[in-house]
């Protein structure tokens, strides 16, 4: 019996000590802050180049991999950056039609691009790729050495699908990038906030059009006809020479000085071929969204101009929509109409600058002595433009007795010479019905026919290519704000965002009806993210802190019901965050522990038990 009492007293003593220790242990547990990140999770990823080209799966190529990060409640962000190694494109082979293997770099050329992602606590994640810096800053990538340019040479991919209307297809994109951000709720009734955006500095579609290349020689031929007609003004049989020789004022002048014979010579320097070559080599249509280069036989479409803007488009916008293709056809017609005017203007300008050199020369001989006593020497050297406008002047270089003889009539004679020369040139070249009029009519026929030829180019282009902007696979219709959204999430804890949410700057599909290639550029994704209950511990926190308290107390009391109850309470309620009350709890715990020790000592003394 004594043994039983002693055991009971000892158990009572331990219980009293445990009651004193329990608050201290509870305070110790509360001194470790409840982790807001515990139970949170976030994910993000970024990849610049993905898709498939003629059976070659780019997603299976490890060297083209982007970055993927995951944070499972760690307080520090998990961040990854991986600039794409462009030399990899040379080592990946693609089987193109005709049984030929080409390196991927022959089909896709990239400027330096970056890939960045970070996953934080509190259910936040961010991603960006393309023309982005190492910190994920979009728009700063160019300055940081990541221009993010991309060029697609699709002619080999299209193979025999190319028609006689379109022989080559090349797509150029500048400074391509995307970014995605998913931020967890800041309050119990809050929602996840999703932001997705993309940027493309410029985009041009370059088409090889054989009909344009065929037009160049025809234009050269039409201008060559003009050149022949103009040069026919001069020479022994030229109209200018003949008009001067038959001028009555000159005949009277020769009779006055006693000259029996006069030499009228005229030369003309034109450079129409150089002018037309420059015209053909200079793209026409600048600023319209469509540029035609007749020398190269190319049609370049500025996608941003025709679309209005490459940026700020709704999710999954098709660039080559029917509206854009209709605008393309109309603009091509307008550019070609203006090209007729431009061609005539170029040739007219060249003719205005062409220089005519006219010389009237006669020797005067003394009829008695038979010796030369003077010369008639009149020279006209000026541009056709000045001659026709009356700005030119004839220079009188006559010698001997001639100047005195012709003085009364020379001024009027020279005026008549200028008038007949200018009139002949104007009638043949510049006036209505002249060679420039004929050139305009010829060019209108050539370029007008080309307008009809190019009318189906939009339809052909739509069959060859699809270009989508702001690609968001989870969006089927345009939301109220396609860039920034509040996402529904479960009201239960933890709160889950769903996802992943993706955005790609552009997706190019070759032969959309039966795709030969689908290539996605600048894809960023965030989610699925999870946020634990705000302001409370998660299950992991409770298990850790409650277990520590319950275990300590249970060990001290040997599993008593009272002590076990204390442990259960600790496990069942979340501990408050540490604050100014922690020190007070610590003092209270120490006081209780001391009181328990004193009480135990008093009991043992009163019972007369030995102390152990």
TrEMBL record:
Residues 1-36 form the signal peptide. InterPro entries: Choice_anch_G, LPXTG_anchor. Pfam families: Gram_pos_anchor. The chain crosses the membrane at residues 585-603. Keywords: Cell wall, Membrane, Peptidoglycan-anchor, Secreted, Signal, Transmembrane, Transmembrane helix. Residues 575-612 form the Gram-positive cocci surface proteins LPxTG domain. Residues 476-496 are annotated as: Disordered. This is LPXTG-motif cell wall-anchored protein.
